[in-house]
């Protein structure tokens, strides 16, 4: 009996170790000169799903941060979001967001464009960007 429990615990440990975990707090950022001061998740989702052009979304390449943002803010997974953008691009209604490989690159792109909106880890925030939403 102890061997079976030990094997089950070992299997559970291996499974948990393989599961991606993202523990950092995510924030939505804009350029400090942007007049926006606060935003709800539902509002932010509009930009990252191509439903509003008031802000230009700046994306991360695939990864844990992106997946967590999609899940918590967009209530979608990356496959669903890619399908939405593919349709918008194909029909000529929008251009796909530019993608960057790190929060530092997203922050730099947002800092350089007053209409840009992006998301990064809260720990990466500095005075080059303004936080308008903390993702819960």
Low-confidence stretches: 8-20
**What name is given to the CATH topology?**
D-Maltodextrin-Binding Protein, domain 2
Order of helices and strands: HEHEHHEHEE
- Give a quick account of the main beta sheet: strands, pairing sense, barrel closure: 5 strands, mixed
Distance from first to last alpha carbon: 42 Å
Strand content: 15-25%
SS summary, helix count? 5
CATH class descriptor: Alpha Beta
What coarse outline follows from CA principal-axis ratios? globular
Estimate the mean pLDDT confidence: 88
As a whole number of angstroms, the C-alpha radius of gyration is: 18 Å
Structural class: alpha/beta
Helix percentage range: 40-55%
**In CATH terms, what is the architecture?**
3-Layer(aba) Sandwich
CATH homologous superfamily placement:
Periplasmic binding protein-like II
Strand order, main sheet: write it out: 3-2-4-1-5
DSSP strand count: 5
User: How many domains comprise the coordinates?
Assistant: 1
């Amino acid at each position: 009996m102890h061997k079976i429990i030990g094997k089950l615990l070992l299997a559970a440990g291996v499974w948990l170790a393989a599961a991606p975990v993202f523990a950092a707090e995510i924030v939505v950022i804009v350029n400090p000169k942007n007049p926006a001061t606060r935003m709800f998740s539902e509002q932010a989702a509009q930009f990252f799903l191509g439903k509003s052009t008031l802000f230009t979304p700046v994306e991360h390449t695939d990864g844990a941060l992106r997946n967590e943002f999609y899940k918590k803010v967009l209530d979608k997974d990356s496959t669903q979001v890619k399908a939405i953008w593919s349709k918008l691009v194909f029909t000529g209604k929008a251009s796909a967001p530019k993608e960057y490989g790190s929060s530092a690159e997203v922050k730099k792109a947002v800092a350089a464009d007053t209409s840009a909106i992006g998301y990064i880890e809260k720990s990466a925030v500095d005075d080059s960007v303004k936080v308008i939403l903390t993702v819960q």
